[in-house]
Amino acid sequence: MFNGPVQCDLVWDCVVRVGFAQTVMNFIRYYPIAGLAFLLFYVWKKKSFENYRIQKLYPNAKKVWEEFRQSAVTLLIFTAIATTNITLAKMKLIPSGVYFGAVDGVWEISYLFISFGLITIWHETWFYWMHRFAHHKKVYRYVHMEHHQSVNPSPLAAYRFQATEAFLEAIYIVPFVAFVPIHFHVIIFHTFYAMVLNIWWHLGYEFFPRGFASHPITKWINTSTHHNLHHQKFLGNYSLYFNFWDRIMGTNFPQYETYFEEVVAKREFEKKNKEIEKEPILISTRN
């Protein structure tokens, strides 16, 4: 795994360089995107997107600062796990299926998509069961309580984890890359995609149309409302990308689909009212 962007022999200087590269990548991806989402929806275009709010109240500045600060802890844990995994693989202490270089031919290109699908399915499964474990009353305060201080989350709550949860959030990738061949760029894309969706689910706004959460096809895809409801009520709606495990395990909140429709209906009603308010009022000049 040292044959990627940072190429060097296994010496302390190399480990430091890998760790630095991981740190820069993690911080430079997360804060600009989560921060831009916050500035766009919570500051600059706040009024324009007000109809799309799931919870009408906005989180206070203290909560947002706590989300921003704690996210740095998570990013450092993510960096430590990646750097340790790379180092141990270079030392031949753990196997690694990560490969690099150009990809040619139909099979090699096809396998990029296959491996992306496999790691997505694995991550979804890991996240769901880890998330349910984190809500167990005996471990909740030690693992997941920090994240749920954001009852009304902003996009910066996406990585608001205490160190124990940050470890559990990231460690899923270690056994996967140990046993499944996967291109380095697929891993980078996967982690970027997972981060963006995590920010989206914590955005606090719903953009999907009416019927999305109950349609026979789209009901299997999660929504921002789905995860926002989890932050409000805690014990349910545990899944990440898809609504598969929640549906087959019966852990969706019973009111999820109804609540989604209420959020969208309220959005459409308020949008229509604003359009009516903008229409010019015609005053007759006849006596």
Explain this structure to me?
The protein has about 290 residues and is mostly helical. About 60% of the residues lie in helices and about 0% in strands. The chain contains 10 helices and 2 strands.
Fill in the keyword field for this structure.
single chain; 287 residues; mainly alpha; two-stranded parallel ribbon; 2 strands; 59% helix
List the helices and strands and how they pair.
Elements: H1 12-44, H2 61-90, E1 98-99, H3 105-134, H4 140-143, H5 163-170, H6 173-179, E2 182-183, H7 184-201, H8 224-233, H9 244-249, H10 256-278
Parallel strand pairs: 1-2
Order of strands, main sheet, comes to 1-2
Task: Give helix and strand order, one letter per element, not per position.
Answer: HHEHHHHEHHHH
Distance from first to last alpha carbon: 86 Å
The major sheet is characterized as:
2 strands, parallel
Shape verdict: globular
Instruction: State the share of residues found in helices, binned by percent.
Output: 55-70%
Uncertain runs with pLDDT below 50, 5 residues or more?
none
Question: How confident overall, as mean pLDDT?
Answer: 93
By secondary-structure content and strand pairing, the structural class works out as mainly alpha
The total count of helices amounts to 10
Strand content: under 5%
Strand runs, count: 2
Radius of gyration: 22 Å
